[in-house]
Structures are given as C-alpha cells and as structure tokens.
Amino acid sequence: MISRRVFVGGCTAVAVTAGAGIAVELSEKRTPRKSADMAPNFSVEAIGASRHYQLTDFAGGLLLLNFWATWCGPCRVEMPWLARTYRKYRSQGLTILGVNMDDDGMRAIELFAHEMGVTYPIARNNDGIVAAYGGVRFLPQSYLIGQQGEILQRIFGMPASTHDVEAGIIAALSRR
Asked: How far apart are alpha carbons 68 and 124 in whole angstroms?
C-alpha cells in the first residue's frame, strides 16, 4: 500500500514536471453568470506619476491586468510581447496595466520598463489589489477583463503560446 506522503510527493513531482504552474483559462461568456466571474475593483498608484488607477477607469474597454516583477525571468520574456500587443491593439480599445510586485524603488522599476520597451501604464502593487485577486502566486499573472468588468481569461505563469491570449484579445475586441 502506498503511504499518503509518497502519493502526494509523487503527484507533486508529476505536476511540476508537467508544467502545472502555467495555465490559461479561457471563457467565451458574454455575460457572467455569477459574481466570481467579475473582476474585483482595485486602486493602485502609478509609477512615476501622481495618478491612481481603478478598475472603473477602464470600463467600456478591454483591460489586460498583468502582475510582474523585474527579477522574474518569464516576466522579462513576456514584457516585450505585451508591449508589441499594446501598440498593435491600443487603438482598438485594449489597455494593459502592469502591476509591479518588486520592493525596489520606483526609479529602478521605471528604468526597467523603459528598457523592455513598455509604453503602457505601470503601477505599484499594494495589499488591496493582491488580496482582491486572490493573492499573486505566480509571476507573471494576468487577467483579461472585458468592457463590463467580466474576467475573460486568467493566465497564471507565462503562457506556452501567446496565440491563445492574443486570440482572446481579438475575440473580445470584435464583440465591442
């Protein structure tokens, strides 16, 4: 008989090996059926400016809320793609808000974002936004939020292919 410790350890090894930390949850729902499908409100301070962002600031548009850090390898790989995606779909109604999870000073974060070619807004994390989104357990971690505040996609870790994320963006923009 297999002990619980051996079974749990074996399952953990299989899950890690299979890359279980990377997941994309897609939803084609137009109208959320329960409150869990709605994005929680937040308030964050912009880096390098005296501006605050709230979810309501993005109402009527499409928001990709992206949690990241300068020390996160997958974030460094993903950010140039996010910058290109923002430039490509911004005029059609996409906004990306990067929420930085670093403890570094704002100037270091601004320099890093500039080096990555980021032109979308960057904000500093706070306990409120982290708690509202269930804790940030993976980096990068992103949410594609529709024009009525519904969560269209949840992306934990860097997606194996950006195609699914971009397809979700295109589909959401076409429904506007």
From this structure: 10
Separation in Å, CA 138 to CA 66, 76, 161, 171: 11, 14, 17, 25
List of domains in the chain: 23-174 (3.40.30.10)
For the stretch 99-155, pLDDT in tens is: 999 987 888 899 999 999 999 999 999 989 999 998 888 899 999 999 999 999 999
In terms of Cα–Cα distance, which of 174, 175, 152 is closest to 165? 152
Write out pLDDT tens, residues 17-50: 334 334 444 444 444 444 558 999 999 999 877 7
Q: Distance from first CA to last CA of the chain, Å, rounded?
A: 57
What are the beta bridge partners of residue 142? 66, 155
DSSP annotation of 92 reads G
pTM beyond cutoff 0.85: no
Both tokens of 28, joined, read: 């084609």
